[in-house]
Structure formats: structure tokens, C-alpha cells
Amino acid sequence: MHDASSDTGPAFAGPGDASAASAQDHSLPISVKSLVKSYGAFRALDDVSIDIRSGEFMTLLGPSGSGKTTLLMVLAGFVRPDSGSVTFGDKEILLLPPHKRDIGMVFQNYALFPHMTVAENLAYPLKLRRVGKAEIRERVERALDLVQLGGLGHRDIQELSGGQRQRVALARAIIFEPRILLMDEPLSALDKNLREQMQFEVRRLHEQLGITTVYVTHDQREALTMSDRIAVINDGRIQQVDGPRALYEKPETYFVANFIGETFSLPVEVAGDSVTLFGQPIETGAPLAHGDKNQSLILRPEILHMFEGDPDPGMNRLSGKVRQHVFQGDSVVTYVTVEGERELAVRRQHRSDETELAPGSDIQLGWLVQDTVILPEGDGSS
Amino acid sequence: MTRTTPANDSAAEPTNRRALRSQARGEQSRLLALSLPAFILVGTLVLLPMGWLFWLSVYGSDGFTLENYTRLLHPAYKETLITTFELAFLVTGLCILLGYPLSYVASQLSPRWASLVMLCVLFPFWTSLLVRTYAWLVLLQRRGVINTWLMDMGLIDTPLKLVHNFTGTTIGMVHIMLPFLVLPLYASMKTIDFDLMKAASNLGASPTRAFWEIYVPLTLPGLGAGVILVFVLSLGFYVTPALLGGGRVMMWAMQIERSMAVYGDWGAASALGVVLLVMTLGILWLLGRLTGAFAGAGGR
Fold first, then answer.
1. pTM of this structure
2. Which of A146, A157, B53, B189 is the most exposed place for a label (fewest CB within 10 A)?
3. What is the interface pTM, i.e. ipTM, of the complex?
4. Nearest-by-Cβ selection for A111 from B193, B206, B217
5. How far is CA A58 from CA A233, B29, B113, in A?
6. Are residues A268 and A239 in the same domain?
7. What is the topology classification, in CATH, of domain B75-298?
8. Confidence class for position A303, pLDDT limits 50, 70, 90
């Protein structure tokens, strides 16, 4: 990733003032409080509150129908909520019509005007803001350079490839220097290679402009690689807001644990601070967040280690039988049966000098005490 | 090295080339055969009569003559020409004024309501032209439904002159022409992605500006198609102006009919026909260029 200070700074600031301070001027914090939106009996947003910091890259992550797009549309002004408050900086904007909110937005299908050329699309928001002709021309050119489409201003939208359209949509959303940028699954229509390339570019642009960005996606990998923080949404509620790493390593709800990464769960019994798994006590790194009797132990394939003998001291352990190895190129996944019926997966780096245990072999599984995550299935949310 | 091995033979004549070529030729000739009946029909029923029409207009009893055309310079024809164009422009304009909002509403409705609205638009379309024209006569005449109502309600004292004049003709023709405008317009409105309007609004366009700068330009191809249909059909309209105009509204098509039925002058009628045809083609070309330019920019 680029270092923001080594770059040219905010794209539209004049040369010479590429300081962090001017990046701050180009962004606003967003504060959402108690937002409710129902469609009949269905609650698309169920008392949603979230604070997004100035200049932050915040991703709204959730399955389809979770309310993440509804939240974005409320911010943009295209969905009128039942109640709640949204402030940009210290200004309440919920009652403002979309065209007075002054926020950039990249639509899922790009929404480029087909009857205008690339340059006319970019010039449109500037024209609406009564920017002079010479300045429009200059800014359009700079914006095109910024998204690496220099010289394509005269093209029709129909002549562009998907990736190019994506770049035009991005350029159009930031050319009028909005202080907030919304993106609605902007990369979902692109193929995998292009998507990864664009993820990098969006991130680079964000670092260059320092603009507060709210990004909607259902792709957890995209969310983990791009975001400063991620808000996981399900059933119209925010489940957890955290940095990518914290979200992955310390999920706070059963939904988050299962939605992000590959997860296997085993039932455990909790009594006070002691936890038993299939009758054996296990250690937890920290006090449990919930006191429920029946909870789940969350295990991911990459935190598990296999031992033919005893696991290292300081590890929780579990015995099982090897069922099958699946070779995946960079890694090998071993499926292990525990307690006769439950299945876990163990992932490890592929190494040509290792021999694999024959299916049916007895094996010990171990994982670090600090990797032990125990959560109640019900999420505590009724 | 001698060219005797099979590999060398196939280098001179690539595998299956001849067979594939004849297959392609066969496909082409089958396509031609499929379209041949239509070509023959158009040739015998359209092109041939049109050639004959043109021939009749320039070939009189004394051989080649332009007399039929010079006669058209008479003021009476000039007046008819003006009336015809006035009416066509007026009808087209009113159709746009009525049809655009109607199509817009229909395009925004849920599929069930939209089909109901379109049924209402299309229903008259399936009724005979003559029946509809007489129905307007019943509604609009001196002691017709509309005048009786207005007088009963005390809004007017004497009946309005709604029919047997330019007004009546216009009303009847707008009613008949409306579906021709609404259908292509509705179709083009249905294809417009509403996210474009959201995008315009997000970029700072007020609803009014978004409508005029984004929505309207994108409907121009459909509007153009509808306008061409209405305008060209209006130019050659006969039945409705003849009945609702009461002889006071002289259309070009009525001049043609009079030349034939009253004077039996096939030469004059043919010349009138040729002039109408040429003018219509000219306008089609012009409108096509205009809307084609829009379509090129707005097409998706």
C-alpha cells in the first residue's frame, strides 16, 4: 500500500499543500443514531447507531437483505427512514433531499449517463455547481488522470469496458470534492482479477483523498482487505463494529464468528468461569462475555494444530480421527472427526517433506488458549 | 521434395474448405428464398404502383407534360397544404403534451396497473376508425352529449361549435393518434434505469434539472419514433377530417379524392399523391436525422 504522505496528497488541492491537515478538511465524520426503517412487518433497520470517523474507510458487511444497502441509501437520501438521526459533521441531514447532501456515490451498476461522453459525465456535477468552463476542463482532465483514464474523455460510455466504467463512476463521484463517499457493492460486477486490482485502486484513492468512505459489500474478503473498520450487519442490526483483525480474531457474536472466515463450532458447557468440552475442561484466555450454560466453542481451520503425541503445553486439546486430506495447492486441509460424529477442518501450509497421516489414524488437536472463542448461539439478541 | 504425401495435399487445399464454403453459400440462398415472397409482394404491390402513379402524373393524353404539377401552384392547393401541415403539427404537438405524462405515469406504475393503463390506451386502437369518428360526432355536435351537459350545468348559454371545423378535426385526430405516440414512448421509458435519476440527484441535480437533462434525452429515441408515426399518418389522414371537418377542413388527401371522384382527373390526383409522398419522405428523412442523432447519443 502507498503511504499517503509520499503521494501527491488530496488530488484536487493545489500543489504544495499536500499535508495531512488538508486531507482532514476533505472529510466529515458521520453519526447515525437510532435509525429505524420498516417495510410492513419487516424491519430493514432496527435501531441502528454507528459513528464513522472523519477520513475513515468503513465497510458495511452483511448477507443480502441484512439492511446494509438500506443504511447506505438512507445516508444518500434515497430511502426515508421512519425515525432516527444522521449527522454529517454537526449538521443534521436526514431532512435534506439527496441533491442537497453533497456526497459522492458509486452505484452498483455505475449509473453512468449513456447519452453523455466520459468527459460530459464527469463535468455534470461541476456544471450543476456553476464551475467555469476552463476549470471544468482542467478538473475533468485531472480526475481522468487520477483514475488512469487520461485521454479517454471523448469516449462514449458504451465504448468502455466494465473496469473502465467503474473508474469513470469513481471519478464522477469524487470530482466535485465531496467530503463523504458512498459505494454500493461497486466491484461486484467485475471478474476476480479486475476486482482485486480495483480494490487496491479504491484503497489508494482513499488514502490519497482522505475522504470519509462508506463501502457496502457482502464479500468478507473484500471487507477485510480494504477497510479501516467493518460494521457487520444482520437482520437490520449492527452486530459488531471493529477493525478487520479484531473482527476476525475476537468475534463478539455467533453470527459474526460464522459469517467471517471458515468456522466450526462445538457445544461447550459453562459453569461460572469453568468450561467443559465433551467432559474435558478447557482454558479460556479471558473471562467469558456471556454467562449462559450452553455455549459454542468457535474453531477455525488455521488455529488448529495436529499432533501424533501430546500437544504443546499451554494449548487446549481434543482427540479425533483423521478422515480425509484435501490438497488445495498452497495448503492442505485435513478433515478430522471428533466424538464420533462432529467434523472439524485443520489447515496447514503445504510442505513437500511432510508425510500425511493415513485416514483412520488417531490424532490430537491443539489450539492456543488465547485463540479460544466461546459465544452463546442466540447472540443474546432475542 | 515432391508433393505426394497427404500432408502436403492438405496444405494446398485446407481440410474441408470447399465443403464449408458450399455450406455457407447454401445457408445464404436459403435465407434469400425465405425473404423472396416478401420482396415479390412489396415489388408488385408497392414499387410497381408507385412507379405507375409517377408515370400517370407526368404522362397525359398529349404525351409527357408537367401540367399536372404547374396546376398545383394554384392558391387553393397552397391553402390545403398549409391546413394539412398545420393540423399535422398541432395533432403531433397535442399528442406529445398528452402522451408524455401518460407514458411516464404508466412506466412508473406496478406491472398490474401499468397493463390496465395500457389497455385503456390500446382499447380504442382495436375499435374501427369509422366507429370512433362517428362517436366523436355524437359527442361533439350542436345538440351532442358535451354541449347538452355544459348547458344543463349552466356553464354556457349557446352550444359551442365543437365539430364540423378545425377544432373537431383536431380532437378526433388526437384521440386516434395518441396510441401511436404512447406505445414507442412507453417502451423507451421502461428501459430507463432509474438509478440514473438517483445518480443525477446525488450529483446535485434538482428533480426538475434531472428530468430535463437526464430523463428527457433518454426518451428521445422513443419520442422520435412516436412523433414520426403520428406526423406522417396525420399528413395523409382522410376519414376523420372528412367527417369531423364537415367540408370546412380541406386536407391534402381530400384533394386527391376530389380530383378522382369528382373530376375523374387521374393525372392531377397522381401528381397530388406524388407531392404528398415526396414531402412525407422529406420530413421522415429530416426527423430521422434529428432523432437519429439523439438515438445515437441516447441509445443503449
1. 0.79
2. B53
3. 0.79
4. B193
5. 13, 63, 41
6. no
7. MetI-like fold (1.10.3720)
8. confident
